[in-house]
Amino acid sequence: MPVERHRPATRAIVIAPLRPGERRLVVGEGNAPSRREPRSAQDRLDEAVGLAKAIDLDVQAAEIVPLTRPRPATLLGSGKVHEIGLLIAAKQAGLAIIDHAVSPIQQRNLEKAWDCKVLDRTGLILEIFGARAATREGRLQVELAHLEYQKSRLVRTWTHLERQRGGFGFLGGPGEAQIETDRRLIQERIEFIRRELAGVVRTRELHRAGRKRVPYPVVAIVGYTNAGKSTLFNRVTGAGVVAKDQVFATLDPTMREVKLASGRRIILSDTVGFISDLPTTLVAAFRATLEEVLAADLVLHVRDISHVETEAQRRDVERVLGELGIDAEAADAKIMEVGNKVDRLDEGARLEAIRSAERAGRGLLLVSAATGEGIDTLLAAIDARLGERDEILTVEIPPEQGRLLSWLHDNAEVLDQHREETGGTTLRVRIDPDLRGKLQGHLKRAGLA
Fold this sequence. Notes:
By secondary structure, this protein is α/β, with parallel strands linked by helices. It has three domains: 112 residues, Rossmann fold (3-Layer(aba) Sandwich); 172 residues, P-loop containing nucleotide triphosphate hydrolases (Rossmann fold, 3-Layer(aba) Sandwich); 56 residues, Alpha-Beta Plaits (2-Layer Sandwich), CATH 3.30.70.240. The protein has 14 helices and 13 strands.
């Protein structure tokens, strides 16, 4: 039996251009997040390195490069292009990642100057999404985003890595046919995928309509990538969703039913993570998935409260939500802010996080999905928010209607109950108005209404 040989990971360097107005270093006190300063170039560089490692690239070097004036031909100045070329040669890197938008002309010129493949931020994120998408829907969405991006670049753009990671297939390899097509063929494929995704949207609408008939409220988890959304989802539902210290570990939405302390049942939905400068093509492509967020009754915005750029990440998420039509600043916003990874903060940093949210006119629930701290408080807060429209009823159940009594305990919060001399039970319950009709049906069939 032949032994499978794993090819070595592609060696790469990561460049983060220092844009005018950005900082090189993050300045903060202790482990308290810095909340007023803009995102630092160092944080962007660290994030870009994390993105590269998410598809198992061997990052040989990473550096911040000043960018006073973008050059139309090469983005970077000629001296810096030469300097980076020497670094690439010394590290024997086959790939250069630039954490910035790079035009097709700039990409071709840099590839020629450096004799290696060049990927910009959009291209890198597309590679990760291609490797992560597991369902047919997710793969279609990624391919659509890739083709939209590829239209301006067209040929031989994805031939720099071997298909050793089981990704989407944008990354060609030795012995494989390279992507050789023209605008017409790309456009035909785009139109085909859009038709397929339109069917996905219709199917999702049917599923949502089915859930409305149940009816259980939907609570969607959103947040910056690697904020701990899937860990929180697993903590609450007991599910086995992949939860890694890795960007974009979750692409395809996962849903589970959860029963709250009041008896209320909800559908909890885990969604794709957001990121700064998320390519608009990806936002558009994943709209079918993100429509679950739009249709949700409540949105949990999970933040890594221990991250030094937590406020900048919050703004990035709110920007994407705004593109979807959810205004985080609106008075009736259906968003609940959750500060995760509180176990990494000291007491002073915890208090400052809460005060900062209060100064901004927002509430903030501190939790640790890893340790379970604050989870019961979070679930109670979700229950209370969804219960704002609840009705309080008094119902008398005859002794022979044990099934109806059990239904009330399962689907409503029993505030008080006592046995009558007749053997029946009188209950005072809090119930979701959407379940009021179902209760009336049960009472009518039992001859009690």
